[in-house]
């Protein structure tokens, strides 16, 4: 591998299906051994992008490089990629061994070596002894493992996975997520993983590309995505967030002072150059970065008074909606338990104080 | 967050690799890139055979229809004389009209008989549906000649019906109208083409969403109104397809008229066949074939247009 | 009585209001089936009748017509011709059908509709027109009429049927199977042999049998395009002129019908929609 930091490069890749622009001018760099996810709502072009990497679709414009080689003239069967299909595409006329051995035929292996590789990969996906079963005799999770083994046994440089866990139930899915991540670490190759489940993407990935309407909105690590989304759209797609309109009063170095609707004067980190004096921006804050109390904050944190409206119980935590004068929408505040500091449960209609730390506010451009 | 901006420099170096590849590689890239080209490449053997197999014969038939027969050779000077004959000689017009009338009658009879059958299988057969469908279409696949021949055996002067009725003492003299008449041709064709009527109608009935029928019932339609108001209009595409699938080929049938038609059941195709046989006037035969094709095409187009219009008004 | 009513009520509940049974229609359906089959069944019936004329009352059982038929040299010659033509036609039409069906179902192509229309056209062109047009072409090109010209004509009318049989088969299995094969290193050729063909094989077999039957039974085109070697239907046509040979034709016809029925039944069964379901891999 000549260039591990830029193992896969996409330059200006677009794909048009007649009038439909499925993928729109994507520029991406993915390094070797990275677990990279494509995340986005249905129809945003994730599958199309993955299929262009695999070679099933060719870009309308742009070029894809894998390991420094341009891919436009390389047919799927000669690419250093292998794919786990969304519906697994297990050949129904072949048993599990034959499915896994399918691609090895082109690697000119001896019979013994072939058998060894197949056994090894059956071990790897924890299906030893399943070799003679046919695809209709397998459960969804088992098919998923066979598809995985069949692709990995080819020792690709890149493994492409199109929503491989989509057809599994929640519990099995969580199990497989852990296994997938462990597998990726042990084989050490690049995984490109398509999903529309943001939790899955954040749990598994080294980096995530958030896509919408064929474009990559943001490419970043899960932490960065969560803490510093670059736009309202990304912030909205990753978890829940409160958005408050605001105007920049003044900027001094890294610090900005703003006049936010309902919150009054707040301070935040001036993260980008759109935060200029007099500019309209949006202040975004995660519900769990807000805290709730009966008294005004005394430890120097900013705070605002509001009226408790409703509470949504989410199991491990609750979201409490608080109306604040001047704010368009009630603010959502995450709380472990819905009680005040004095131990009394907070009731609907009570007056409460919401407080936060300056660093937890994120400034976003107006949509 | 604009990581990709920075990266654009990196592939620049790699792009050099792409530009030195051979034109063969480029051709291959175009081939891989264009799904349409790959599709047509794959389709080409079939398409070439079918195009050549149909276009070439038709082109030469059109040419021949403008020639004149001289004993065993052609005079290839252009003439509209054969087409003039088609229009002027009453025999051809009469045969054409009779062919159309017999085919039309046969089409109506076949579709009318087949509709209830298709309806039955679509709505009232729940188990072994496939067996029913195979049973309905099986005779179609067996020898056309033998099926027509079977009707000759049945309808004949001394055939099954006449000898049977006589044996039962119901008739003294054989019923003569049975064989060698247009009626015989219509009955035989209705039997021979049944599958072409049943299948399209069945498919269109099977496709009807059952909840539409339930909605009609729910809104107060009895069985008859429901049928006329919902089922029949929705199965119209099947009826139209069936009509054309039967009408077009039967206009050109000559086995049935030859075997069971008798002099009064002779159709245009028999005459065309004679032009290529004992009459030995190929240009005349070609002109008649062209006339038949054009007439059928015009009738089909008008029919489709009219039924579309009518269907538009009903639905 | 109570039991019977209970059963009836049960049956009523199994099917919806719209689909509940309708006795007159049921009777009609049975009559229609009789109309379809009884005429054809008269051929075998009279082929065992000990009389030259096919008429009631039956005279007695005999197999002598079959013996006479089997002793006929020209009949066997014609049969051999028909089998040769049928086998070749079926092979070529099915191969062309596979190309066509795969292209039509697997690629986005502009102008697909009109192209498919052209390929399907022989379904609705009267046989006599295609027959005489081909006759003119072949003689103008100076080609002698022979079994080859018959085969050419038969391929033209068989390809639409091959396509119609194969297209549902190709549609019935997921494109991702072929993509998975390409992804695992198989080129187009080996993907075809290792994945596509095994998956569509029942359809291929069905198409072969149907095309064989079509060609084997075809008369009109063969009538114009056959040279001195007759196919079986042409041989039969020739025999029909002689009333005394009629019983032999009945015997031969009965045999042909039996074989056609079996072949077509197998073909239809192989091509049945449910056959796809057993191959479907989706969970
Ligand atoms: N073969 C095709 N022909 C025409 N349009 C297509 C084709 N494939 C995809 N599209 C269109 O391209 C867009 C992106 O599709 P894609 O399958 O990549 O979405 P996706 O992000 O994978 O969605 P999902 O999460 O639902 O799988 C969609 O609008 C889709 O309709
Ligand atoms: Mg997708």
Task: Outline the secondary-structure elements.
The complex is a heterotrimer of chains A (367), B (315) and C (283).
Chain A lengths: L7 E10 L2 E11 L4 E5 L6 H9 L6 E6 L2 E2 L10 E4 L11 H6 L9 H14 L15 H13 L5 E5 L7 H18 L2 E6 L2 H7 L2 E6 L2 E6 L1 H6 L4 H6 L4 E11 L2 E6 L3 E6 L10 E6 L5 E3 L8 E12 L4 E6 L7 E5 L15 E6 L5 E4 L2
Parallel strand pairs in A: 3-8, 3-9, 6-7, 7-8
Antiparallel strand pairs in A: 1-2, 1-4, 4-5, 9-10, 11-12, 11-14, 12-13, 14-20, 15-19, 16-17, 16-19, 17-18
Chain B lengths: L2 H5 L1 H11 L3 H11 L1 H31 L2 E3 L2 E3 L5 H8 L1 H35 L4 H13 L2 H12 L4 H8 L14 H11 L1 H14 L2 H9 L4 H12 L1 H16 L3 H7 L6 H9 L5 H33 L1
Antiparallel strand pairs in B: 1-2
Chain C lengths: L1 H13 L8 H25 L16 H7 L2 H34 L5 H9 L6 H14 L6 H25 L3 H9 L4 H30 L2 H6 L6 H8 L6 H25 L3 H4 L6
Helix pairs in contact in C: 2-12, 3-12, 4-7, 4-9, 4-11, 7-9, 8-9, 9-12
The site of magnesium ion has 2 residues of chain A, from helix 1.
How does this structure look, described?
The complex is a heterotrimer of chains A (367), B (315) and C (283). Chain A contains 8 helices and 20 strands. Chain A is α+β, with helices and mostly antiparallel strands and 367 residues long. Chain A has 2 domains: 6-236, Rossmann fold, CATH 3.40.50; 240-365, RNA polymerase II/Efflux pump adaptor protein, barrel-sandwich hybrid domain (OB fold (Dihydrolipoamide Acetyltransferase, E2P)). In chain A, the strands form 4 sheets. A 6-stranded mixed beta sheet of chain A has the order 6-7-8-3-9-10, with helices on both faces. In chain A, β4 (61-66) and β5 (69-70) form a beta hairpin. Chain B has helices spanning 3-7, 9-19, 23-33, 35-65, 81-88, 90-124, 129-141, 144-155, 160-167, 182-192, 194-207, 210-218, 223-234, 236-251, 255-261, 268-276, 282-314; strands at 68-70, 73-75. In chain B, α5 (81-88) crosses α17 (282-314) and α11 (194-207) packs antiparallel against α14 (236-251). Chain C is mostly helical and 283 residues long. Chain C has one domain: MetI-like fold (Orthogonal Bundle). Chain C has helices at residues 2-14, 23-47, 64-70, 73-106, 112-120, 127-140, 147-171, 175-183, 188-217, 220-225, 232-239, 246-270, 274-277. The longest helix of chain C is centred in the first third of the chain and has 34 residues, at 73-106. The relative contact order of chain C is 0.14. Mean pLDDT of chain C is 84; it is low at 1-13 and 276-283. At the A-C interface, β6 and α4 of A face α8 and α9 of C. The site of magnesium ion (MG) has 2 residues of chain A, from α1.
